[in-house]
Amino acid sequence: MKRPIEVKFYDGILAEGRCAWIVPDQQQGIVLKLDEDVPVQVSAADFYFSYPDMAYIGGVGGRKPIIELPEERRIEFLSKAPHWLGIKYKDIYHAIWKFERSPILIFFSMIIEISAVIVILKWGIPYSAKQLAKFLPEQTLVEVGNRTEQQLIAQTQPSTLPEEQQMRLKTLYEQKIAVGKPAKIIFRQGGSSMGMNAAAIPNNTIIVTDELVKISGTDEEVLAVLAHEQGHLVQKHSMQKVISNLGVAGLFAFVTGDLSDVVTAYVVVLTDAGYS
């Protein structure tokens, strides 16, 4: 049964609301009566509003639902909107209102949101970074690599290793590890910025510090490090880690072409990736 509903009506002229009743109308709308008694019959003095002219605003917190009407008129419900009210999206608004007033539903929604954030951080971003790193254009990799190489060269000093030793290690690397597509090998003094380290840069360059070479007992140990870095180049692991660290900001940087933050993060990743 479609019973009359008591509401408060603002006529757009007076600031004070007036007690009124609304009943459904067969012509897809409502009839509003200002009489204090429950309306039984529709009279000529009543207001008629069609559903297309109404803007429904759902209740939030302690505020009840509202209907905005033409000519700055408004209907405020004293409780929830009646079931027979045929305004579009009314049921959705009411469900949201009911949801945000339920402590149990709020608690479970918080659990779901926290779980979603954990899933995104633990699996979503790393997976997205891995896929993005695979499909980055070669030009982007070269640009990031060149700028990273410049910064690492500026932070380190020229190598003091004998030229003969450098050439021997490069030759062994090309013969045993990177057959077909060898990377450019650069020897530098790591100093306080890199120390005993090696870094694979996405422009197909590997930087090896003197400190790492000197602490290695044999050429084979240096080649093992170079093989490790070669794997990073092939799998683009460093790019994946940089994109993961930057998250959405990293994705935005690659889309817009502003790679300054990417280069900075890349240098930090490389200098922090030391060897035991």
UniProtKB/TrEMBL annotation:
Cofactor note: Binds 1 zinc ion per subunit.
TM ranges: 104-125
MF-aspect GO terms: metal ion binding; metalloendopeptidase activity
Domain called Peptidase M48: residue spans: 194-256
BP-aspect Gene Ontology terms: proteolysis involved in protein catabolic process
InterPro entries assigned: Mito/Outer_Membr_Metalloprot, Peptidase_M48
Cofactor field: Zn(2+)
Keywords carried by this UniProt record: Hydrolase, Membrane, Metal-binding, Metalloprotease, Protease, Transmembrane, Transmembrane helix, Zinc
GO cellular component terms given for this protein: membrane
Family the UniProt entry places it in: Belongs to the peptidase M48 family.
Protein name: Zn-dependent protease with chaperone function
